[in-house]
Amino acid sequence: MRKIRDVLRYRHSTGLSLEAIARALNISKGVVSKYLRLASDAGLGWPLPEDLDDRALEKRLYQQPTARACTFAEPDYAQVHQELKRKGVTLILLWEEYQQTVGDTAYQYTAFCTRYRTWAGKLKRSMRQIHRAGEKLFADYAGPMMPIIDADTGEIRPASIFVAVLGASSYTFACATSGQTQADWLTGLARALAYIGGVTELIVPDNPRALVANANRYEPELNRGTAEFAAHYGTVILPARPRKPQDKAKVESAVQVVERWILARLRHRQFFTVAELDAAVALLLPVLNERPFKKLPGCRREAFEKVDAPYLRPLPATRFVLAQWKRAGVNIDYHVEFDGHYYSVPHALVRQEVELRITRSTIEILARGRRVASHPRSYRKGHFSTIAEHMPAAHRAHAQWSPGRLMNWAASIGAATGELVKRLLLEKKHPEQGYRSCLGLMRLARNVGPERMEGACTRALSIGAHRYRSVASILEKGLDRQPVTGPAQAELALPDHANVRGPGYYH
Fold it and tell me: Whole-model pTM?
């Protein structure tokens, strides 16, 4: 469902062609057309309704089965090329094997040979790339690293130099980062887009693990954070093929220029923080971009203002917030755990698997692509963050009672009831025991009324029976209606004194 959403967003928001969308999402152009047709038949456009989760979207798109059009199966031309190197193997033999494998969807022999020769004619060829205005931003890290000296210990740590360049104008951006993690890559890309003041149609980075979940030569798959970055900026991230520097020749050249005109000038300086190095790089960037071209008129800045700047898309209103994703199971207590802290979800999701979107400040919980809970992130291990609406009704009613609320209720009944509730809360070994006893008194009060409850609590206090069962027994036998007389009444009126042991002394 995520790729279907991406197809609709790229088509309607960015206006990319079917071929460009297919290239960006690593699917065929036919699949892109299919997704767009299904959405059109379902009356869906972009943006999709907010309440349309993955299950509802799937139901809308696939309400009725559609007949699949018969298409020709493409041969594995690379395998054909390798097999032809074997002695005695011919194209007609390979075509017959191909026809036996795919059946009626096979090309005829003439078409098979023609398509293979077209494919083979592109091997080991190099073509000069023509970059359209505002189309591509290339990004990579420079090879050399800059040393950062710890002022306290003298330890030397390497810092990396991030480089980004626009394809048409060669306008260059560079900054220093502490490493080459996902956060460093995406922060560098965000700063580069802010530096140029807009967003390109495509971003072509290297193929690092920090950005790419599956670095497949033919179908690379972006990780979740990288895909979110692309969606936030309304662009397409298309990593270069592994071990194919020609895919990003522009940034390879820009890296060389940065190394010569920025890093070389800083080689004799000492830096104690990454921020100091970054500030020094920022001071030299205008010098680099304003250097005249050798063979072309003007400089990088002038070319940027004339060529690329008018065709850049506007930046989003908010900055991108990097998020970490994690799968988690909902425990029987309707909480999920992250980093030792527990966050509540709606109790109906007990024993189901959910996704956690973690930022520095928030924890979002999604079930089947729909957000079901959001919490401020807590770093207190062993503690719970619980939203009352996530609890079952019985748990919610129990949790609402606090000592203060119980005391207020008891005071509304009478002084004796208030005193008995106070003693229940103080004398029990665990507060939960006192809560249960007080809740039992509340149930009795609803059945017999406040007057009888006050009388029963008065008698219970007079005989030192500070228990729910004692009050229930007094009410059951009607003793609350009888006056409290004798020594017990006098004992109730005795003042507190250290020499007065009380009935508790003998138990």
Answer: 0.52
